[in-house]
Design goal:
The chain crosses the membrane at residues 36-58, 648-667. This protein is α/β, with parallel strands linked by helices. The chain is built from 14 helices and 33 strands.
């Protein structure tokens, strides 16, 4: 209490004593024991009231013993049961946490991890991934600024997350208990397969395989890639006690269009304990997307070279630059880029009315707009002979296809004739134009669809400056080239707008997230937030069907199908209000990453112990570990003083005490006839 509070209490004591003495002793005719008792009651009452008014703060100190935390972290992944050490892990856990000396010295806390980390004292060993890195992150979050040891019981085989050796830091010791058979068994396995998701028809696609071997003698193995009963590639690989890894690169033909499933296998004449990791399935979607584009121009211009380079960054695009009269057959091309058309293009326009090839019309200072008005009816041009610079304005509502704003507003202006452009019919505008700060309400880049014919319009020349500026801004041409590629992709296909668009993978690995997303558009091709989407998934072998609702998330709907077994599945997505449907299939490949290991990762676990200035242990050394922890003087219980401050006015019992004093005083006076 402060000096002021003590002074006030002394004054209160004097006042309470004086008032009690004056009323019951000084004024009393008979100084009986009753008067002394009443004076005492009055003194306590007045002094208690003064205490409440002064409201001193009472400080209370309480000593508390804080033990050092000891997190015991158990690997709950399926690799533990696959290595047949799940019972051993449970016994180790029980032996540690039930040790009375450990309980007396440490605050023991149990956790489990697989793909996630959580408190637990019961373990199933069914986790589909092993992420030891998540253990480090969570322990740092839970035990901030504490010096504590960690017991990690695991085989050390991590399948996801960052390298855990350096995740724990050096502040706190980690004592790994390495479980699993440490005997080196002969084992050949496919560590990883690298393959593109897509391949193009009649091309060859690369497959890269990383192989490894553990054993004590020299062997040879056959690496085979097959499709069904057909062997596509076979190579003999040699391993020695010094050469334990090999990388194999194979080019496979993409002869069939569609989803093609392949199997990679490595085998030898030697007997292996684990053959599960000798095989990996993979799938490639073979698509026919070779596109021939003709850029037709009567003049030479830097735009032509910039367009050719941007388009041909996609290896499936081939660009030919021609004069209007050089085209012999329109059937040789999938897309026509008509650069600044004039009367020389008359025959080309006439022939294309029959051929129906999608076109990309680019105008500029050399364009004959009267001729162009005669050849198309999407736009009507009334242009003067004066030149004008047009800046671009991105339309975020554009939804004909997915496109990102690459900073169009900051790109150099395009040059075109000054005048008015009138839109006839339906036109999807990606970029509108403005002159300096004035919006023209006219399109700069727009797209039209008339029945099965698609047309794009870019109203201005010098788009080569856009590509150059994009490179300056991003140190790469990539963003601009992707922008042009999306335009060509739109023109290279003649499929009309779909009201129901579904995105999914053609194959998934067992145990990974299986997510299917969908978008539903109304008649105006606007995203419908009130759509009701369901999906029915059927196992093609068992014919068992499960149905789910797709849930809205931002501007799409999604469903998570985790938990399905390996196999082939067909599915049907349906919008209940319009009965629009989409049907397809996918395959879940029989691949369990947790079954790829035959031995614990002793090297990694030893590195972890060394990094944290601790030691690694094996199951038969758990008593030694317990002894080390008990004898380690770093981990001492701390005597902590908890100081709590309480205001006297918060004491309810003091109010009750005052009330009892007043009642007692009243009854005493009543009983003795003093009222």
């Amino acid at each position: 209490m402060t000096t002021t509070a003590i002074l006030l209490l002394l004054v209160s004591l004097l006042i309470a004593s004086g008032l009690s003495y004056f009323q019951y002793i000084y004024k009393a005719k008979n100084k009986s024991k009753v008067n002394l008792f009443l004076a005492f009651l009055r003194f306590l009452t007045i002094f208690s009231i003064f205490l409440l008014l002064i409201n001193p703060i009472i400080t209370k100190n309480r000593l508390e013993i804080v033990k050092t935390p000891l997190p015991v972290v158990i690997d709950n992944s399926s690799s533990i049961s696959f290595l047949n050490v799940n019972k051993e892990v449970e016994q180790l856990y029980k032996k540690i946490i039930s040790n009375k000396d450990i309980q007396e010295k440490f605050e023991v806390q149990s956790y489990q991890f697989s793909e996630d980390f959580e408190p637990s004292d019961k373990f199933t060993f069914k986790g589909t991934q092993t992420n030891i890195d998540v253990v480090a992150k969570n322990l740092k979050s839970i035990y901030k600024n504490n010096n504590y040891p960690t017991i990690l019981i695991s085989d050390g085989n991590q399948t996801s997350g960052n390298d855990y050796v350096y995740s724990f830091g050096t502040e706190n010791k980690v004592y790994p208990i390495i479980v699993g058979d440490t005997t080196t068994f002969l084992d050949i396995k496919i560590n990883q397969l690298n393959v593109n998701k897509y391949a193009f028809h009649k091309n060859k696609f690369p497959v890269e395989a990383f192989l490894s071997y553990s054993g004590t003698k020299n062997i040879t193995a056959d690496f085979v890639i097959s499709q069904g009963n057909l062997i596509l590639s076979k190579q003999r690989i040699s391993f020695t006690t010094y050469k334990k890894t090999a990388t194999v690169s194979v080019l496979l033909p993409a002869d069939k269009i569609g989803i093609q499933v392949f199997k990679a296998t490595i085998t030898s004449l030697e007997k292996e304990k684990n053959t599960y990791n000798n095989t990996k399935n993979f799938a490639v979607e073979v698509i026919d997307q070779k596109t021939n584009i003709a850029i037709v121009s009567p003049i030479n211009h830097p735009d032509l070279g910039a367009l050719k380079r941007a388009i041909e960054t996609n290896v499936q695009r081939k660009v030919t630059i021609l004069k209007p009269n050089d085209i012999k057959s329109l059937q040789d091309y999938n897309v026509l880029i008509l650069y600044q058309p004039n009367t020389e293009f008359k025959a080309l326009f006439e022939n294309n009315k029959v051929a129906g090839i999608n076109t990309f019309i680019i105008t500029g200072n050399s364009t004959d707009f009267n001729f162009l008005n005669q050849q198309q009816n999407n736009l009507n041009f009334k242009m003067s002979g004066q030149k004008e610079d047009y800046l671009s304005v991105f339309n975020p509502q554009f939804n004909l296809f997915a496109i990102d704003n690459i900073g169009f507003e900051n790109l150099p202006p395009l040059q075109n004739a000054f005048g008015s452009v009138t839109v006839n019919g339906s036109l999807s505008v990606l970029l509108s134009s403005k002159i300096r700060t004035i919006d023209t309400n006219s399109p700069l880049l727009a797209f039209a669809e008339n029945q099965s014919k698609r047309t794009a319009y870019l109203l201005g020349e010098n788009s080569w400056k856009w590509r150059l500026q994009s490179h300056i801004n991003n140190q790469s041409f990539e963003k601009y080239d992707v922008f042009i590629d999306k335009i060509i992709q739109f023109l290279a296909t003649s499929t009309g707008k779909k009201s129901l668009v579904v995105e999914h993978e053609q194959f998934y690995n067992f145990g990974e997230a299986i997510e299917i997303t969908a978008q539903y558009f109304n008649k105006n091709y606007e995203f419908d937030e009130k759509a009701r989407l369901t999906i029915a998934v059927t196992n093609t072998k068992t014919k068992q069907t499960k149905s789910f609702d797709l849930l809205k998330s931002n501007n799409y709907y999604k469903v998570n199908l985790d938990g399905l077994k390996a196999g082939n599945y067909s599915f049907n997505v349906k919008e209940l209000n319009s009965n629009s449907t989409y049907s397809s299939n996918f395959e879940i490949l029989d691949f369990d990453i947790e079954k790829q290991f035959v031995n614990p990762d002793i090297e990694k676990m030893s590195q972890l112990a060394l990094q944290t200035q601790a030691n690694e242990y094996y199951p038969d050394q758990v008593d030694t570990l317990i002894k080390v922890l008990l004898e380690n003087k770093e981990y001492k219980a701390i005597q902590k003083n908890n100081s709590t401050k309480t205001q006297l006015i918060d004491w309810v019992w003091l109010l009750i005490f005052i009330l009892i004093l007043l009642i007692t005083e009243w009854f005493t006076r009543k009983y003795n006839g003093l009222l």
